[in-house]
Design brief:
By secondary structure, this protein is of the alpha/beta class. The protein contains 10 helices and 8 strands. Strands 7-5-6-4-1-2-3-8 form an 8-stranded mixed beta sheet, with helices on both faces. Strand 1 (2-10), helix 1 and strand 2 (35-43) form a beta-alpha-beta unit. The mean pLDDT is 79.
């Protein structure tokens, strides 16, 4: 039979490990006569008992494997590590918080086996239970990145997806240090079927994604898949030069023709502050891209493994 790999990134999820394991095994038992499975937990440098709980499960269940990082490298690194460790003909990427309904795996499996799809992905059609400000900026992010990037990202898209081995291998071929998986999934292409579901609250514990972390993550996504911000900086510079030239002409004409005395101090201060702000904004955009280049050229590993399960 074919092998299905379930990749589960975890960070300080001691409240969820057992709940998730029980639920996912219950679902997988419904298709165990058709496909074998392995469950791969990626411990992203957790500081609670997450790793110990995973080890206990692994010792009791030979289908359970794990990788533990030396520190917290982030979810993107955990996703890459899980995909790299997976051996399955098919791979499912799913969060441990049960906000990704595991029961969809059966439908995903049927679609992949019986249809001509390389990937079955999920997206949320509602954000009930989320803070309003967070939902607003999330939707704004999708609108912006879809306008300035050639890689389309579906609004509400989740990392939760069922992929063929060919698609997974294509993703693993992209070894960039600065990773934005939602963009990578779209960039590699392949025929994808989207499944919609409404937002589900966590079964236990709290989200590790603060508003600030999500904001930084969104900026990483924009700079990873679009150079439009650089073009915006250039266009702003051209526009400001043109405006400055017009103002110079106006001042010269007023002074030579009408003899008006141009107010100096307020005009000068406002101009300096305005131009200084624009310059800092453009320098910040350049800095974001330069920082990405800097990190890529260092060629540091995407993650460091502290320990992992022994071969079973």
């Amino acid at each position: 039979m074919s092998l299905l790999s379930i990749v589960v990134p975890c960070y300080n999820e001691q409240e969820m490990i057992l709940l998730f394991y029980e639920k996912i095994v219950e679902i997988l038992n419904q298709i165990k006569n058709y496909i074998n499975f392995e469950l791969i937990f990626i411990d992203d440098g957790s500081e609670d008992n997450t790793l110990e709980l995973i080890k206990n499960i692994s010792n009791k269940d030979s289908n359970v494997k794990y990788v533990s990082f030396s520190r917290n490298f982030g979810k993107e690194s955990a996703i890459y590590a899980g995909l790299k460790k997976s051996l399955g003909d098919y791979v499912v990427l799913i969060d441990v918080d049960l906000q990704d309904p595991p029961e969809l795996i059966i439908k995903m499996y049927d679609l992949i086996i019986n249809s001509n799809y390389d990937c079955v992905a999920t997206r949320r059609t509602s954000r009930n239970g989320e803070p309003a400000i967070r939902s607003f900026f999330a939707r704004l992010f999708y609108k912006i990145i879809n306008k300035i990037s050639k890689v389309g990202i579906i609004d509400g898209a989740r990392d939760y997806r069922f992929m063929t081995r060919k698609m997974v291998d294509s993703i693993l071929n992209l070894k960039e240090y600065n990773r934005f998986s939602k963009g990578i999934f779209s960039w590699v292409g392949f025929k994808t079927k989207w499944l919609d579901y409404k937002n589900i609250k966590r079964a236990s514990g709290t989200s590790k994604w603060s508003f600030w972390k999500l904001l930084v993550y969104s900026l990483d996504g924009i700079t990873a898949f679009s150079t439009v911000p650089l073009a915006i900086a250039s266009i702003l510079g051209i526009i400001l030069c043109f405006i400055a030239f017009i103002f110079i002409c106006v001042i010269i004409v007023k002074t030579l023709v009408w003899g008006e005395v141009v107010g100096g101090y307020p005009t000068l201060i406002c101009t300096i502050i305005f131009l200084g702000g624009i310059q800092l904004f453009c320098i910040g955009i350049l800095g974001q891209y330069i920082s990405k280049i800097y990190l890529e050229t260092k060629s540091r590993p995407i993650y460091i493994v502290k320990e992992e399960d022994s071969i079973k």
